[in-house]
Amino acid sequence: DTAVSQTPKYLVTQMGNDKSIKCEQNLGHDTMYWYKQDSKKFLKIMFSYNNKELIINETVPNRFSPKSPDKAHLNLHINSLELGDSAVYFCASSPSISGNTIYFGEGSWLTVV
Amino acid sequence: AQSVSQHNHHVILSEAASLELGCNYSYGGTVNLFWYVQYPGQHLQLLLKYFSGDPLVKGIKGFEAEFIKSKFSFNLRKPSVQWSDTAEYFCAASGAGTASKLTFGTGTRLQVML
């Protein structure tokens, strides 16, 4: 069983489109995250939710909107996609917000053309 | 500002060679430290972590890391690498007891030659 699963794994889309990436964790964790890995493999946090509440929002454009319907799910919606949004997006979770180990999903490869 | 530095960007070794990847961090307060590995086309997997206690931490696949507080370092080591260790290695840090926000280093690409 995949602990942190995200869909789709691969997504190719045109500039200007709106797309969503879904994430679910079956670990019973309270905290979920979205990380972005750029073409140079640099990883940076985008958002963090704890029990469905936003707790970390790094300097991410408003076009990115996370939604957490319950603590096991954290979806990422992206409006008006731009070429620079091409990256690998990793969902992750941890038992709580206080410095626990973070477990990553398999990543969603987004290519904007 | 919190930061993690990995000075080796690309390391090439022959099988059976010993490995040491450098990691330095800059953090205010108590810090948790991690090493993650990303095999080609795959997700990040936790190799090992340090929260407190024995500064020499043993992880999976024969890897270990040593926390040296005076040097702000958490270097990753393996006595004898294998071809299957070819991957990208990321050092990361987070503040202990605070909102979890992993700060990653820029990664080290390890290539092991047969």
What does this structure look like?
The complex is a heterodimer of chains A (113) and B (114). Chain A is mostly beta strands and 113 residues long. In chain A, 0% of the residues lie in helices and 56% in strands. Chain A starts with a strand and ends with a strand. In chain B, 0% of the residues lie in helices and 53% in strands. Chain B is built from no helices and twelve strands. Chain B has strands spanning 3-5, 10-14, 19-21, 24-26, 31-38, 44-50, 56-58, 64-68, 73-78, 87-95, 103-104, 108-113. At the A-B interface, strand 4, strand 5 and strand 10 of A face strand 5, strand 6, strand 10 and strand 11 of B.
Terminal CA distance of chain A reads 33 Å
Quickly count the helices of chain B.
Answer: 0
Structural class category of chain A:
mainly beta
Mean pLDDT of chain B: 92
Q: Please report which band the strand proportion of chain B falls in: under 5%, 5-15%, 15-25%, 25-35%, 35-45% or over 45%.
A: over 45%
Residue windows where pLDDT falls under 50 for at least 5 positions of chain A? none
Multimerization status: heterodimer
β-strand number of chain A = 11
The SSE order of chain B reads EEEEEEEEEEEE
Largest interface, C-beta within 8 A: A-B, 27 and 27 residues
Termini of chain B, distance in Å? Answer: 41 Å
Rounded to an integer in angstroms, the radius of gyration calculated over CA atoms of chain A is: 13 Å
Query: Helical element count of chain A?
Result: 0
For the largest beta-sheet of chain A, the strand count, sense and barrel status come to: 7 strands, mixed
Element-by-element helix/strand order of chain A: EEEEEEEEEEE
Q: Specify the helix fraction band of chain B.
A: under 10%
Query: What overall form of chain A do the CA principal axes indicate?
Result: globular
Q: What is the average per-residue confidence, as pLDDT of chain A, rounded to a whole number?
A: 92
